[in-house]
């Protein structure tokens, strides 16, 4: 074998074909672990303590806050991380895929090392673990919905850059319908639920426009998506300045009621995180589960994926390629629109100009990091949400890391993920290409 | 089952691809549809399969007229098709590909019944000895196996008519023999097989009836007992010689020396694995091999358009690997790419401009950064005449020329520099016979003029006809270099990776 030094024949590869060992990820893990040891471990003064708070007042059992010696804990966690990095190196060397649990455990170790470091010596303002997790889930909601929408469209071969616009349209219509129904009927809860029903309709309309131009007129899908985003911003801004200004009733701060699940919501940690949310959050979990099963186990899903990978092959077995794409794009728009309801009725806020603030684009990143799968979208959305929540928490505790840096981290992770560091990320083969007979 | 096409006419704009074609296919027979590339065979089958709408004519199934709105209808009527470019979804498994479009579902949630699909694949695979694993992912399978998956796909839908469109284009001779065996088995099982091809050997081996198509029209039918020469002349419209007239090569000094050339692609797969060989001045080295075994990477690495990861190439004493493409071209390399329309010409540009693509920035074609249209036109007229490019004007866009004339433009450009080495990949793919003869003649003339020549061709006939020596490539390596009179079976075995030390010259 006359190849570079990092090459070696893989056992399963046919003769003559040699695969590179992917050592980049283990090396990156090692570097992060080392950094964690130096900064969080040795960077913490000795003799300080970090206090973690877990319990919430509503829980069954009261778990007392606990304090750990900061420096020792940070060092141990960093060493654990380094050990995991070594293990990942071993996996890569043996040409075995590095398992996901290893990455998760590594991330957990480094994050706790960081939390210990940030909270060192700040006993009075303890690190609120449960609060952090609640914030993560909440902030993840629009990202997960957006990523699900993107997954649904791209799996069928349509690139949906218009997620941002779909979120915004959903947020707008949800607020307006909620306000209208609430002032007409006098029931704020009814208004909120009607808003929740209206939101996907707004998103679906944007999706339908995308489908029309992308499928019927073969316009470049990225260009259409960008234009639609600008269009929705323009329309909502205009209506905000005219319709909503003249009728303040239509834009009230109306929130969906919380639906705590009996008993379950009192379990420490997971109770408040998972079982004490409003309808939008529960819907998110339901859609993730249903979509994951449908996409990978159902007839519909097999056909959708075939259309996104090799539309001509799908056509030759009698699958209507363009019909599938139009349906998926509209359905994807509806899901993004539903996610838009997060900004208004799920948050109990009135509509504000451009209030989605680029979450639709971050959702695209979550879709890619989630490898175009619903459960991946959930995981990636939660990761981004966690980073956001972390930033908020550090702001409260008063950390020495500029919060902007923390806010950047997940996106850096995405860029590396997309560049193929974490693994083989491959989009549907036919995405963005109009199907012409 | 009886399938009949009557008076099928299909036009694309002014171009008539099928002109009143009649065809009758009956079960338990193999019907060969013979014709050159571009004769309209695939168009006809796409009409039959419902992918195109016919402008005139009708399709009759058991004497009943039928109209297929799409492939789904055709399949429901029992017509299966194995396309030249496989219609397989690469990240899917065999079972998923086979079930796609007519999936069985199971359970209260109506989820895919993969177990049923697997069983079906296994059943058909065992019946015809296909040896296909239902859980294998398509992209991991060799092309021969992918083709068998396509056949399973058709059979799983109870196809009683099976259309095979150029099925052997991507197969080794041994895989071809296997396929022909499968075709016979299918026929004996009562299937009507339509074999679309331009390869006479295959037609003679399995066909029961032969229909010959030329320029969109049926020009005759023939018995499989007809000689290859008879079939060939029917196919191309005149008598053809199956060989290239050339004198004995008079090899001179070593012109190109390749040493351990290696190319690793983006995915980290070694596409070219330490290839070493020499080509002498005045000799043609033809590279044989099934497509995708490193030939493309070899030629592109020599041109410098693909970076080589190890090894070197030396042209007339000068190392060319790592140099800029422009410098390599100017040091005497002529390059005829394998995809003429994609890499050989700029289709929307005029013939005149295409002819000076390589030298547009030099005097006298440009002065002070400004093109000199008069000089360019004069030069173009000369080339058009020399290379017999049939065009109405040199200002015509190159894309509007026929394939043969486009290739002549490429050759005219590449051969107008003083060459030390000519590399031509599939130089006659898709050309009519007249153009093929012309291209071959020019290539031989270049050899006799003292250049080293490398020909890459997927057509074994062309390799054998042109070569002074044959190098066979397999999995990115040269399996061996053999004289041109080596018999086909040996070449075929080498193309499948078998290494015979004694044969290596």
Automatic annotation (TrEMBL), chain A:
Q: Which InterPro entries match?
A: ABC_transp_permease
Q: Which residues cross the membrane?
A: 23-42, 72-93, 100-120, 132-153, 165-184, 190-215, 222-240, 279-296, 330-349, 361-384, 405-425
Q: Which GO terms describe its cellular component?
A: plasma membrane
Instruction: Tell me which UniProt keywords the record has, alphabetically.
Output: Cell membrane, Membrane, Transmembrane, Transmembrane helix
- Output the Pfam families linked to this UniProt entry: BPD_transp_2 (PF02653)
CDD domains the UniProt entry points to:
TM_PBP1_transp_TpRbsC_like (cd06580)
Membrane topology note: Multi-pass membrane protein
Please list the GO terms describing molecular function.
transmembrane transporter activity
Q: What is this protein called?
A: Nucleoside ABC transporter membrane protein
High-level lineage: Bacteria, Bacillati, Actinomycetota, Actinomycetes, Micrococcales
UniProtKB/TrEMBL annotation, chain B:
Give the main location: membrane
Matching Pfam families: ABC_tran
* Residue span, ABC transporter domain: 3-240, 256-500
Cellular location(s):
Cell membrane
Source organism superkingdom: Bacteria
For this protein, what is any one GO molecular function term? Answer: ATP binding
- Give the matching InterPro entries: AAA+_ATPase, ABC_carbohydrate_import_ATPase, ABC_transporter-like_ATP-bd, ABC_transporter-like_CS, P-loop_NTPase
Q: Which species is this UniProt entry from?
A: Demequina mangrovi
Topology with respect to the bilayer? Peripheral membrane protein
A single GO CC term for this protein reads: plasma membrane
Query: Which keywords label this protein?
Result: ATP-binding, Cell membrane, Membrane, Nucleotide-binding, Repeat, Translocase, Transport
Recorded protein name is: Nucleoside ABC transporter ATP-binding protein
Residue ranges the record marks as coiled coil: none
